[in-house]
């Protein structure tokens, strides 16, 4: 397996000049490049779960879905899927789903499935937890496989953002603060009041409000940054809205 | 912790009625809600955390500077210490985060802003020496301030009264200077206020907020420590729309800073009055509350006024504890003032002498002295283009008020204070009606203060002064300006009651009379005629409207502007189809020059129609 880009915050030159993963992939376009490959690899590593959910929702059982997705990645990363990539493919999410559908269709047409991923690179995916997650997740309650794909995408993305946020806060010694204030990241009533949070944290209510405001700001930044990794930077708002809509009934 | 988390999870109910994930990073959180939070504050650009480039990367890119080390970084950029080579002087280099916009527009915009910032030159503002792009990142080379930020000072200890007010008045000075040059800071907070080893305040990061916010053509990205305006220091209108703010947003932010400096707390929510939590006079309550008014028009309208009010409150606080200086020191002061007066009278640009004189002036009691020095100061301020300061002096001068007199305080504390002040200045202008330079500067001062209609009165005086001097072009410009402000903007075209202009009907009458006078003096000048015609049309005063339409048409004919003349006559005829002579003239013109007057060129030699 090739090494993946690190999340090293100190940053090499590439980190701060280079743009987001998806834009690297897009820019490489047809020609392809080691960087683009790395970026694509990283993206797939992050967003395998929505593909699994989609496959499951289409009727595959756990083992089958595992095979299909792993097979898809093997082919996807090996073959030059990027060849027909055009600028309109502003969003990795849409692109990935289109590729997956194509792959699944091919698999079914051939009826027999070659042993997937034989000798090919495997993404380090925690398949064991996938089924468990799928069963307990709310994403599969969606009406269509596409919707559940989007929902799974959104939760995966949010999980990443919250994990990063938690790590950041913990590194600053604000782990407890984060745990207590986390519910305030939701726009809806969260069942806790600032007063209660203040008591638990032994802070003044004013200080809690300030901390919450900072937490929200940082959350928004990380969320946007994370989304920007997967689409044209100008489409961040649009992408966020479509993910939001995946939940509305 | 796990227990605690479970408890939270159990209690969480989301209004979307969604089943919430039970474990993982999203435990107890509703994804829909989280995405909505993400959408809650729409921003145009992409926000990624900014990772400052190491010294080695930038080493060769900052013009004329050898970078030594990075001395700090936040979301708003990174600051490096460097040595400016030929001068061997230590400088600070601030590198801004990369922008989402394309390179050309970023560079252009940055250059525009940098040039404005470079114009600021004041002991209480961090000076900018140079700017450019280093590895595509915009940077400023600026004064290196050895000291601490006000934030660090506040963290260390509670400032005493003397320290706090001395520092704050310097912040005011710096901001006043910037506002007079049309630069708004936009992000006043203790982090942006540096205090050097000598205790001198240096306000930094002017306008960077706007550069980074980049709401126009795409701007710089931001990250955690930098959020456009830290919410607590931000004026309410800035939270609404950071683009539509003026210098009064800085006044609000400084008010928050003053509150924090004096009380150690932030004025959040229903905050206590400063005098309730610190031993301060009630005067401070009034001053700070005024700066923190939600509505910008109820705040101090200029930094100079805020500063003045704080200065008075400081004096009040001090005089409560210590008696005023004796007669001996007064004599000494007067002698010193005399000397300074002489200097300032000859060299109005000697800021140092001016400031000293100002300081003495503030301490003088004798009315005569105060008035005389006020006049001198006012003139010097006008020379220096410090409009707001000049107005303050004018006001003092005119109202013949010694400082600290109850009346003066009343005027300045009153929400109407500024209005009175402006009226006073206008009176001053009336006293010296032919001093059009002074009028001009005053008018600009008002425009600079963003007071909607205030310049009108001055415009009118100015126009009259121009007429008397025979400077028609300028006079006309003034009239046009006033008419535009008063009529074209204020009245809806179909307004039936526009005839009864509420407050300034009289002014307008005089104005129109002056316009007519001008039209008579210059019958061939079409512009005043046009203005008058439009004005009367808007006012729906028909006979005057017709009168000036005709005069205008005739003027066009005299100037052989056939097309316009035809158009004008047509218009009259449309309003009054039965006016015989107009119809005849029009017919003649059309016969000679075609229905649009387009035949002008060929027919030129044949002269005007008989």
How would you describe what is shown here?
The complex is a heterodimer of chains A (249) and B (610). Chain A has 249 residues and is mostly helical. The model of chain A is unreliable at 1-18 and 111-121 (pLDDT under 50). Chain A has helices at 13-17, 21-28, 34-46, 48-57, 62-78, 92-110, 127-136, 145-171, 175-181, 194-201, 205-228, 236-245. Helix content of chain A is 63%, strand content 0%. The longest helix of chain A has 27 residues, at 145-171. In chain B, helix 6 packs antiparallel against helix 9, helix 20 packs antiparallel against helix 21 and helix 22 packs antiparallel against helix 23. The longest helix of chain B has 20 residues, at 161-180. Chain B has 610 residues and is of the alpha+beta class. In chain B, a hairpin with a 4-residue loop joins strand 7 (193-196) and strand 8 (201-203). The termini of chain B are far apart. At the A-B interface, helix 1, helix 8, helix 11 and helix 12 of A face helix 1 and helix 2 of B.
Can you summarize this structure?
With 249 residues, chain A is mainly alpha-helical. Chain A has helices spanning 13-17, 21-28, 34-46, 48-57, 62-78, 92-110, 127-136, 145-171, 175-181, 194-201, 205-228, 236-245.
CATH class of the domain at 159-201 and 230-319 in chain B: Mainly Alpha
Helical element count of chain A? Answer: 12
Largest sheet of chain A: none
Question: β content of chain B, as a range?
Answer: 5-15%
Give the uncertain stretches of chain A in residue-range form: 1-18, 111-121
Helices of chain B, by number, come to 27
Radius of gyration of chain B: 31 Å
Could you tell me the mean pLDDT of chain A?
75
The count of strands of chain B amounts to 8
What fraction, in percent, of the residue positions of chain A are helical?
A: 55-70%
Termini of chain A, distance in Å? 41 Å
- Characterize the largest beta sheet of chain B: strand count, sense, and whether it forms a barrel: 5 strands, antiparallel
* Strand order, sheet with most strands of chain B: 1-2-3-5-4
Shape of chain A: globular
């Amino acid at each position: 397996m090739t090494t993946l880009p690190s999340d090293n915050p100190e940053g090499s030159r590439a980190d701060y000049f280079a743009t987001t993963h998806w834009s690297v992939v897009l820019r490489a376009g047809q020609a392809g490049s080691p960087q683009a490959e790395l970026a694509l690899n990283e993206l797939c590593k992050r967003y395998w779960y929505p593909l699994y959910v989609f496959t499951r929702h289409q009727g595959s059982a756990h083992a089958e879905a595992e095979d299909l997705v792993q097979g898809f990645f093997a082919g996807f990363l090996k073959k030059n899927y990027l060849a027909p990539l055009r600028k309109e493919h502003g969003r990795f999410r849409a692109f990935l789903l289109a590729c997956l559908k194509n792959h699944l269709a091919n698999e079914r047409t051939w009826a027999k499935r070659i042993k997937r991923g034989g000798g090919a690179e495997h993404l380090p995916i925690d398949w064991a937890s996938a089924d468990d997650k799928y069963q307990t997740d709310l994403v599969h309650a969606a009406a269509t496989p596409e919707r559940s794909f989007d929902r799974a995408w959104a939760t995966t993305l949010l999980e990443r953002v919250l994990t990063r946020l938690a790590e950041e806060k913990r590194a600053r010694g604000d782990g407890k603060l984060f745990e207590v204030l986390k519910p305030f990241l939701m726009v809806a009533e969260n069942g806790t009041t600032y007063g209660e949070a203040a008591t638990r944290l032994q802070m003044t209510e004013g200080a809690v409000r300030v901390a919450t405001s900072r937490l929200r700001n940082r959350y928004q930044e990380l969320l946007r940054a994370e989304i920007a990794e997967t689409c044209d930077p100008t489409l961040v708002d649009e992408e966020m809205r479509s993910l939001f809509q995946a939940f509305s009934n | 912790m796990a227990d605690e988390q479970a408890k939270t999870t159990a209690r969480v109910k989301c209004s979307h009625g969604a089943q919430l994930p039970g474990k993982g990073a999203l435990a107890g959180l509703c994804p829909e809600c989280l995405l909505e939070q993400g959408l809650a504050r729409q921003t145009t650009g992409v926000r990624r955390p900014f990772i400052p480039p190491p010294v080695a990367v930038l080493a060769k890119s900052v013009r004329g500077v050898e970078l030594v080390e990075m001395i700090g970084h936040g979301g708003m950029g990174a600051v490096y210490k460097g040595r400016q080579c030929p001068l061997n002087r230590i400088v600070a280099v601030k590198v801004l985060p990369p922008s989402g916009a394309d390179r050309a527009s970023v560079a252009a915009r940055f250059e525009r802003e940098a040039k404005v910032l470079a114009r600021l030159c004041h002991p209480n503002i961090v000076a900018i020496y140079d700017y450019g792009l280093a590895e595509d990142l915009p940077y400023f080379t600026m004064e290196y301030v050895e000291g601490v930020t006000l934030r660090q000072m506040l963290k260390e200890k509670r400032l005493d009264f003397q320290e706090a007010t001395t520092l704050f008045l310097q912040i005011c000075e710096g901001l006043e200077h910037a506002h007079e040059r049309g630069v708004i800071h936009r992000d006043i907070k203790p982090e942006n206020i540096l205090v050097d080893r000598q205790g001198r305040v240096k306000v930094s990061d002017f306008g960077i907020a706007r550069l980074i916010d980049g709401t126009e053509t795409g701007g710089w990205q931001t990250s955690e420590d930098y959020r456009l305006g830290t919410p607590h220091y931000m004026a309410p209108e800035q939270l609404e729309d950071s683009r539509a703010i003026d210098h009064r947003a800085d006044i609000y932010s400084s008010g928050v800073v003053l509150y924090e400096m004096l009380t150690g707390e932030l004025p959040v929510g229903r905050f206590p009055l400063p005098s309730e939590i610190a031993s301060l006079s009630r005067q401070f309550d009034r001053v700070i509350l005024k700066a923190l008014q939600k509505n910008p028009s109820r705040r101090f309208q200029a930094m100079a006024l805020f500063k003045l009010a704080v200065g008075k409150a400081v004096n009040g606080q001090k005089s409560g504890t210590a008696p005023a200086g004796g007669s001996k020191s007064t004599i000494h002061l007067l002698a010193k003032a005399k000397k300074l007066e002489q200097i300032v009278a000859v060299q109005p640009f000697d800021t140092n002498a001016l400031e000293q004189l100002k300081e003495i002036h503030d301490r003088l009691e004798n009315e005569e002295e105060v008035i005389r020095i006020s006049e001198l100061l006012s003139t010097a301020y006008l020379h220096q283009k410090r409009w707001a300061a000049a107005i303050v002096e004018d006001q003092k001068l005119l109202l013949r008020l010694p400082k600290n007199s109850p009346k003066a305080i009343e005027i300045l504390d009153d929400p109407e204070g500024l209005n009175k002040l402006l009226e006073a200045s206008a009176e001053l202008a009336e006293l010296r009606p032919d001093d059009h330079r002074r009028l001009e500067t005053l008018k600009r001062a008002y425009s600079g203060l963003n007071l909607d209609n205030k310049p009108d009165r001055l415009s009118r005086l100015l126009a009259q002064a121009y007429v008397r001097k025979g400077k028609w072009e300028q006079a006309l410009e003034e009239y046009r300006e006033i008419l535009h402000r008063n009529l074209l903007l204020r009245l809806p075209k179909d307004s039936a009651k526009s005839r009864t202009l509420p407050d300034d009907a009289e002014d307008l009458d005089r104005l129109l009379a002056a316009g007519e006078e001008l039209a008579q003096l210059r019958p061939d000048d079409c512009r005043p005629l046009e203005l008058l015609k439009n004005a009367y049309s808007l006012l729906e005063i028909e006979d005057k409207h017709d009168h000036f339409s005709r005069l205008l048409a005739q003027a066009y004919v005299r100037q052989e502007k056939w097309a316009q003349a035809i158009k004008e006559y047509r218009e009259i005829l449309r309003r009054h189809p039965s006016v015989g002579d107009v119809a005849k003239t029009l017919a003649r013109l059309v016969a000679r020059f075609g229905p649009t007057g387009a035949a002008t060129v060929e027919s030129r030699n044949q002269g005007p129609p008989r």
